[in-house]
Amino acid sequence: MTAELVRGQNHTLPQTRLEIRVSAGSPVVAGATLGDERGTVRGAEWIAHPASHRVPGLEVSRQAAADHRLAVDLDALPAEVHRVTVVLALPMGAGRPVSFGAVAAPFVAVTGLDGTEIATFTLTGLDTESAVSALELYRRQGAWKVRAVGQGYAAGLAGLFADQGVAEAAETAAAIQEAVASGLARSVTPPPRTTEGERVRHPAGPAAAGAQAPAPPVPEAQPAEPLGDPASARTEAPGGGPIDYAHPRRQTSAPPPPPPTAPPAAPGQPPRPVAGDATGWSMDERLYNQIWGMFEDLARAVAAYRSAVDFAESRMDHELDRALSDPRNRIGGAGDRAREAARAKRDELTGRAREALERDLAQLAAESAVVEPALPAAYAGWDNPVWHAYRVPMEIPMALRLGDLRLGEAPDLRIPLLVRLPLERGIWIDSGRTASEAAASTTGDQLRGLAVETAVTLAARLLAVYPAGEFSVHVVDPAGSAAGQLSPLVGSGVLAGPPAAGAEGVASVLAHLTRRVDLVQMAIRAGAADALPPDLDTGEHLLIVNDFPHGFDDRAVTQLRYLADEGPSVGVHLLMVADREDARAYGPVLDPLWRSLLRITPVADDHLADPWVGHAWTYEPLRTPQGSRVLEQVLALVAEARRGGRR
């Protein structure tokens, strides 16, 4: 029976191999410290955190996430360790919560390796604290117990570590936050959550494999918060359309549940998957929520499988060590029989875990097979027939597909990577060489060419999903090195102007967009949209920067950082094609720029992490089918619609 602890209460632990599961409403850092008899942490090597996620007997997550699983083997702790303290902290950064009082109360559960809960604790009553000692496992008279602590620290991790006796508390805390910032830069941002409950799931879903799946993320059901006066979030500008920088299709009440469109399944069989089997106000929103639910389901199913395999391997090692430490097993065939029995048990456990995973993958594959053909153009791949019936839309969709994601355990199952529109942060297409197999087989020139082609296809998708005249694309190509790859955009006439070349061209485009950001920000904050110049284009803008930092001086770099930070909130978005190594001459001044962008690659690469369990997902960019003219045809329709709107 689960013990629901309150602050200060303790409970005896019936076993020494445990999992500690953390669930929070927003990304948190989860770590643990090892203490001696007096609770003193003797050094940084006794702290498990994202930059050093393993210590003897303990393993924690490598990044900040909304959900964590910490593995604990109390028997493997050093003999001088008498206390394990689980630590939670809020990641630092612009736009992130600064205290636990501003987020949902974290929930911590101590479980056995089979998922059975032993004790739980909800950390209520937190206010200004940004770090907290959630609970501790401590040894008393040879037995281990768990105690609910809930001690918060307004001074953050530095204050927490100082209280535990860490000599260089501030330096250690800073190193952890630096590692967390790097991890968050590669993490896919989940959609905001609401409270209408879990996605409709099938019995053969991840829960059957032992994965705990909290309510999946669905779009926020509250109005977007404007920059200044709420009334100025949507105003009329002279000579132009409405200024609307709120996310589209957000409602003020909970969306309705999905309609019962699936016929009941035969007894003993899982329900048939149905496209749009999620909550939402429209079919597009239901499909969006369903795709994110599939993404989360696959993450948790694979997490459960990997956890089971690790447990089976650890159990086999423990049984082999115990058998071989007995001198009686060193004579005759007893030792061989012990080894065979341990391996047989390992194979049995991993086989059962694989069977559960295969059931989950089969159900997700069936769901993907019905969802993919039903996707609208904004969510669909270039090979989807929906593009053959493409027409310029009358309103902005809620999301855009940037590519596909997959995991090694399911190489044939691909989940669309969807991002909300308008874009909340810029995109960086890494043209440098990475450690992936696909990059290793591609030359540097080919990578740079593929990176620009990826930028062109993304720009084309953005142009295609916005109403005519409400989205403009600017290109900066200082050396003119991407003329061939940019030809679809240039030839169709959809660019706001020819690609800017040379230092003067770079300066002119950046000055134009910086001025626009400044004017719109001032107008919104002052509630004076009618004061905007009549020549100001109030639509969304995308700046494609190729071959950065070539052609950029210090002033241009400063303007680019400003556009990356301030532009998205007022409709100016950044798409960079760059190799980070080429910008090393600027030193660490550009590190915040890279971290503020969503990094994708022109070839398959496993660099993106999910926000739940932190898997490294393989990202694959979207490509047009070989020999297809779909890109040119779509851009021609966009250009025709623009010309029609100017008549």
Strand content: 15-25%
Based on Cα principal axes, name the global outline: globular
| Strands, count | 23
Number of H/I helices: 11
Helicity level: 25-40%
Classification by helices and strands: alpha+beta
Largest sheet: 12 strands, mixed
Measured distance between first and last alpha carbons: 73 Å
Low-pLDDT segments, ≥5 res: 194-252
Overall mean confidence score, pLDDT: 84
**Mind telling me the C-alpha Rg?**
27 Å
List the defining traits of the structure above.
single chain; 647 residues; alpha+beta; 12-stranded mixed sheet; 5-stranded parallel sheet; 11 helices; 23 strands
Write up what this structure looks like.
With 647 residues, this protein is α+β, with helices and mostly antiparallel strands. 31% of the residues lie in helices and 22% in strands. The strands form 4 sheets. Strands 1, 2, 3, 4, 5, 6, 7, 8, 9, 10, 11 and 12 form a 12-stranded mixed sheet that branches. A 5-stranded parallel sheet has the order 18-19-20-17-21, sandwiched between helices. A hairpin with a 5-residue loop joins β13 (234-236) and β14 (242-244). α1 packs across α2. The protein is globular, with a radius of gyration of 27 Å.
Helix-strand blueprint:
Elements: E1 3-5, E2 10-12, E3 17-35, E4 47-48, E5 54-55, E6 58-59, E7 65-73, E8 83-89, E9 107-111, E10 117-122, E11 131-140, E12 143-153, H1 156-163, H2 169-185, E13 234-236, E14 242-244, H3 283-324, H4 334-371, E15 399-407, E16 410-420, E17 427-430, H5 437-440, H6 444-465, E18 471-476, H7 487-492, H8 502-526, E19 540-548, H9 554-566, E20 572-578, H10 591-596, E21 598-600, E22 605-609, E23 616-621, H11 630-646
Parallel strand pairs: 1-10, 17-20, 17-21, 18-19, 19-20
Antiparallel strand pairs: 2-12, 3-4, 3-7, 3-8, 3-9, 5-6, 6-7, 8-11, 9-10, 11-12, 13-14, 15-16, 15-23, 22-23
